[in-house]
Amino acid sequence: MILCAVAITLSLSAQTPPVREKIMLFERHTWNAEDATDSIPGYERSMHHVEKTVFVPSSGEGSDITFVSLGANQEVTLYVNGTRVGYHAGGYTAFSMDVTPYIVAGQDNTIAADITNAHNADIPPLSADFTFFGGFYRDNYLLRTNKKHFSTTYFGTQGIIIDNNAVRQCPNGWNVTAHLTGTEGGEKVRVFVNDQWYSDTKVSKGATQCALSVTVKKPRLWSPDDAYLYTLRFQLVDRRGKVLDEIEQRCGLRYYRFNEAGLFELNGEVVRLIGTNRHQCYAGVGYATPDSIHRRDMLALKQMGGNFLRVSHYPQDPLVMHLCDSLGIITSVEIPIVNAITESDAFTANSLHMAEEMVWQNRNYASVVLWGYMNEVMLRPPFRYQKGMWKRHWEYAMNVNKLSKQLNDRLHALDSERYTFAAVHDYFKEYQECGLDTLADVIGHNIYSGWYSNTIESLDEKVERLHKQIKGRPQIMSEYGADCDVNLRSTDPKKFDYTLDYAMLYHRHYLHLLMTTDKMAGGMAWNLNDFHSESRGGAIPHLNLKGLITLDRTPKATYYLYQSQLHPDSAVRAQAVAKMDSLLAIPQAQEWPLCMLMGSNRMYIDASGLVWTNADTRCTVYGGMPYVRKTQHGDLPASDVTILGTTEWSRYQTAMMGADSIAIHVPDGRYRVTLSFCELETIGEQEMSPYNLGNKALDTGFTGRQQQVSVNGHRVWNGESLATYRATDVTVDIEAKDAKGILVTLQAMQGASIINAIKVERL
Fold first, then answer.
1. Residue 75: beta bridge partners?
2. Is the Cβ–Cβ distance between 142 and 175 less than 8 Å?
């Protein structure tokens, strides 16, 4: 349980409230920061209670008090002074509740909430390749205003809705709708542009809205090269000219379209969209990411030379969107319908409500050009592969189609300016069969050729085929990427070895295609940063490692590859090449201790800086073959499951199978030999990461393993079975003499022998 009790003491005298006053409430937090990365499968998804005591000043004229949360995952029930106020479903959009009737002005007030991140089949996302951290992970506060004010119902837009008054042709200003609360008629909405008075518009009696138009002469257009923003300041004033409320918005003017060839045009010029996706988590804090990291991420994308951010798979902190506007990063924003839907009225209602919140809260940003509403929704249709369930599968597919159409129509009704967008996984036929290919304005393809399927080189043919297959709809490559741990290297990189070197081969090919093709409007690397995904195994358990920068925001060589090609400054590009080359230098193994990964194509730099080689002239292996993970799409060179009992997973994810002996050629002397073992197979169906898409593990016929292991004749393992997916080390001190070195003997008693790594230290 998280319990907060803090009193804020202010003057007890009645005060005229400032135009807008924030009283901060619960600190950003999550209860999953540690258990989402520990060795225990799963993470806490439950109810927590939080509360805080705050002093709310009184006002002679009275105040309206609104509770505001910028994001809480995923269901919140709010209480004020013991009375239930309201409920909100959905973990990624801001929400507000009027708490004026429940607040006692001039006294301490207790604000409390029950918040849960437990699974709810009626709330998207149902499942996803990211961790659903629970808690108030963004800012939340009481907003104190005058009784007459710009509405806080549409929080995020703060009651001011701003649209370009031209979309496909050069705009000269904005159409504005001011939503009002408490006005009686006769008040005025006053507008300033760049601190210069523009106009007053009188509020009609009984009106809750006020429409106005703002024009500028010779508009300066917003773009990635010139992210110019006008400052619009709106005041609500009474008949005597007293300012009752004030809101400032920074707004850009631009026009755009996808042309007849499917390419994106901004301000009349074709712009090739190249950038990344982005998840909002950070090392050690999960979703409770500080503002400094949001800023760092957006600056990293801009400094890389990227001009597009797919805000995936959910709306993110308003600061992220402000930075996209101010830095000149074109964006899409989407709601978190991922993998699957629930066929219920409640799921549909929640999805539509999320779409509305997303639009109201993000429509004022010049950077936003796409509204997304589904991602890979046919990835795991629940009845597709069940015997005798084809009719039920088709019924499900039609319900997906129905929801897609409802969302697409609702987004167009809410915002006629922007395009709609849906991302599909790399089996487009599934979406064509249920008619999802003809709904969204723009189709996003999540393509992982050379990672989850096929080869890197097959990408070109796939893009060509999709271009011919889809007519009349713009296409973007909304995802592509390869997991990589910067501490894994190889001179012979292979798919699914998680090495930096394979990731470089992968991204070089994709980036070249995206910079030269006219078959797609652009592409977004998956992902800007490594991010939490609790159910993943792989090189580092519980993380998706496809980021161009690490979870703690250290750039990888792949980041500098993009910077070396995309940044407009030639000096920066040259520096990026130098940094990339430095990071790609193959590390030299230390003379001692001798550290070897058996049967691996990889080299591994451990936490202490030791280099574990994949081959060494001082080692000869007699018999055996490297371990491979057999799947329906081919053999993988490393295990992708979580290895328990260690933090050095890479020592145990590869192995030599069936070896008779291993001779280690060392001078005479005393040595400490550490043998590392881990059983990488299991009887029956093989466990694999749920996000190793399509690569279902094959039953290898494994029935168990027993072996005896000796080092220079000293028995160190006497036939016991190894624990599946658990690291085991055996250490022995021995003497090498008579120039015979060290001989590790493996005698299989059941199945083939296995050994994962060897470390030899001089004593």
1. 89, 116
2. no
Locate 610 and state its tokens. Answer: 């030791």
742 and 663 Cβ atoms separated by less than 8 Å: yes
What sign for the dihedral angle of Cα 181, 186, 191, 197? negative
Q: What is the pLDDT of residue 9?
A: 29
Of 572, 611, 571, 570, which Cα lies nearest the Cα of 594?
611
pLDDT digits (tens, 9 = 90+) for 606-628: 999 999 998 778 899 999 999 98
pTM of the predicted model as reported, rounded to 2 decimal places: 0.93
Q: For residue 135, is pLDDT > 70?
A: yes
| Amino acid code (one letter) for 413 | A
Strand partners, 266: 256, 269
CA distances from 191 to 147, 200, 214, 234, 335 (A): 20, 6, 8, 5, 33
- Is a pLDDT exceeding 80 seen at residue 201? yes
Please measure the distance between the N-terminal and C-terminal CA atoms of the chain and give it in whole angstroms.
51
10 Å CB burial of residue 713 (0-12, 13-18, 19+) is exposed
CB 115 within 8 Å of CB 25:
no
CA atoms within 13 Å, Cβ hemisphere of 508? 8
Contact at 8 Å (CB) between 52 and 111?
Answer: yes
State how far the Cα of 304 lies from the Cα of 23, in Å rounded to an integer: 38
Rounded-to-integer distance, Cα 135 and Cα 574, Å: 44
User: What is the rounded average pLDDT for all residues in the chain?
Assistant: 92
Residue with tokens 């609702």: 410
Written in H, E and C, the secondary structure of 274-321 is EEEEECCCECCCECCCCHHHHHHHHHHHHHHCCCEEEECCCCCCHHHH
DSSP symbols for 636-688? ESS--SPPBS-S-GGGTS--EES--EEEE---SEEEEEEEEE-B---SSSPP-
Question: Under DSSP, is residue 756 helix (H, G, I), strand (E, B) or coil?
Answer: coil
For the chain, the farthest-separated pair of C-alpha atoms sits apart, in whole angstroms, at 104
State the burial class of residue 119 (Cβ atoms within 10 Å of its Cβ: 0-12, 13-18, 19+): exposed
